[in-house]
Amino acid sequence: MDSRQALAFIIAHNIVQKRKLKEKRKKKCWVRKWVDRRSDLGAASNLVNELRLEDAQQFKNFIRMSAVQFEMLLDLIKHQIVKQDTQLREAIPVHDRLMVTLRFLASGDAYSSLQYLFRIPPCTIGRIVFEVCQAIYDNLKEKYLKCPSSTEELKKCANQFALKWQFPHCFGAIDGKHITIVAPQNSGSLYYNYKNTHSIVLMGVADANYKLIYVDVGCNGRISDGGVFNNCSLHDALESKQLTLPEPEALPQRHLPVPYIMVADDAFAMTSYILKPYGFRNQPAPNRIFNYRLSRARRIIENVFGIMSSKFRILRKPIHLAPHKVKYVTLATCALHNFLISTSNYYLCPSSVDSENPITREIVNGEWRNELQPEGTLFPLERGRQRNYSISQKDVRDEFREYFMTTAGEVQWQYQFIC
């Protein structure tokens, strides 16, 4: 046998062996039979229709909104999430795509668990959730998540704080929260934070009505408290004067003009537009009264984050997604939070947020605080170190302190909280 014949024999032998292996190999199905019967037997849509007709409260609990709100949201985003049918298969309907996403946000269940409820494979659910979260944020941000851009809008926010929380010249409460994630591969300590978890940071500003008026999501969790704010677009807009604050004005029955500010905790540096409390040790009574009044206004943003994590349980556990997908999941929950406040009167019931006893004025914790575990997945940024402030910044804080001690600025119950 010459070399050519030997080579031909080897090639033929290999072809025969490959064919035998191919015949022995178990063929993979194109679509699992129980998944393919989704259009015939239905999935969660049947259950949802029953809840919609027979139990409206459980329908709200299932996806965190009423049937009317679901239809409103669907009308807003369906043009972005609709898919075309093909000769191979029918596209998943837009209402199922939105339903599986809302259930994922509400429950935090894994894709592998949701597949049995919706008869949709996990890989498909992953693509749906990301696309729908993008669509929710893209279509709701202009109307429901818009940052005040004019002095009139900022003054309106400040008037609400003065009316509801007796803190004038305040247009928002700012804070940051860590959204816990499963560490991405080869990320090292990039997302590692001081709580020994991996996270990205949600920086938010809330108005007096528990609505978010600014959010920034995506900064890795290892960045310090000051660095998170310094890297966000709000800081850049304030520093460059692109966001024009109202001109400083004197407080009622006072003479020194003070600027419009945001209230923050000790994790932030005090600037001309951020007001923070005095140090918490060995402070005289007027300083402690100021700290109480500032903390009373700042609790708004704490409640916003707490309510979001209570309603959308995906925020209460490490999210096993890539950071850029976690960013859109978080942005979608922020947009939905404002959407639900604006379109319903049940989302923020009196018991769901912190309130004050009308007689003793003691704080009554909202229901969300009872639901969070001691080591929850949403926790505040680390407390900052004491910093040296300019004389003007100290004067502004002192002016607020003096105002809260006058008859025009005091509240009757503040003195019982300074011990």
UniProtKB/TrEMBL annotation:
Domain DDE Tnp4 residues, every copy: 174-338
**Is Nucleus found in the keyword set?**
yes
Q: Source organism's superkingdom?
A: Eukaryota
Subcellular location as annotated: Nucleus
GO CC terms for this protein? nucleus
Cofactor field: a divalent metal cation
Any Pfam family hit: DDE_Tnp_4
- Where mainly located? nucleus
InterPro entries xrefs: HARBI1-like (IPR045249), HARBI1_dom (IPR027806)
Q: Which family does it belong to?
A: Belongs to the HARBI1 family.
Protein known as: DDE Tnp4 domain-containing protein
Q: Which organism is it from?
A: Macrosiphum euphorbiae (potato aphid)
Its ancestry begins with: Eukaryota, Metazoa, Ecdysozoa, Arthropoda, Hexapoda
